[in-house]
Amino acid sequence: MIYERTWSWLTAASTWQGPQGMGVRTGIYLWDCLLTLLLALAIALPLGLWIGHTGHLRQVVVAFTGGMRALPTLGLLTALSLWMGLGLGAPLLALTVLAIPPILAGAYSGVESVDPRIVDACHAMGMTGWQTFRMAELPLAAPLIVSGLRSAAVQIVATWTVAAYLPIEGLGRYLIDGLAVHNYPEMLGGSLVIIVIELVVDGLFALLERAVVARGVRLERGMAGATSSRAQ
Fold it and tell me: Does 210 fall in a domain?
């Protein structure tokens, strides 16, 4: 049975040891994913917050993010590798580009979703634009911002496997190399490890998304829930 052979492969010491073992490749894979997310975050988050706060260039960015979401990962990766050559640069750039739209959309939609009455109240209290953004808009927008990060992180973890068709180390090697020699237990085992990482990353960002909800919003939701329960 393939499942028994996969379990034997996953639990074998040789699978995890050595410079090309599962442990080293998992570390490389996670580092590549983290670096991609940080690069996309550094580009998209400031731009998205500025657009959400000022309203400038919103239509352009909406069209841009929609178009970027439609780009095929493999096609973009192939085009960049032909231009930049084989190595880490092409997949890092390609996956950073593809991770920007969800972060950008989460940032500007989060700031835009803040109730205008709250912004007006801040201005009425004499707050500057920066103070309003820092003390009101950003905390209230945080859940949607983290939601965008969550989408980008899950996408990055899922698509970094594609980069293995270039000579790139990482967990994707088990899928590409296993397919080349019809080693299906290796392919299935590598896929299972990637799925576990995907679920862990998604779960951590889900917890973070709940944690960044502003205290006042949590209290309001709790009061609304209690009122609804009494009404029933």
Answer: yes
CA distance 104 to 121: 27
Q: Total structural domains in the chain?
A: 1
217 with 140: CB under 8 angstroms?
yes
The beta strand positions in 14-165, using DSSP E, are none
pLDDT at 230: 54
Exposure string (b/e) for 141-151, b if CB count within 10 Å is 16 or more? bbbbbbbbbbb
Provide the b/e sequence for 36-69 (b: ≥16 CB within 10 Å): bbebbbebbbebbbbbbbeeeeeeebeeebeebe
What digits encode the pLDDT tens for the residues 145-189?
999 999 999 999 988 888 877 777 888 888 888 877 888 888 888
- DSSP sequence for 121-172: HHHHTT--HHHHIIIIIHHHHHHHHHHHHHHHHHHHHHHGGGGGGSS--STH
Structural domain span for residue 77:
23-231
Q: State how far the Cα of 146 lies from the Cα of 152, in Å rounded to an integer.
A: 10
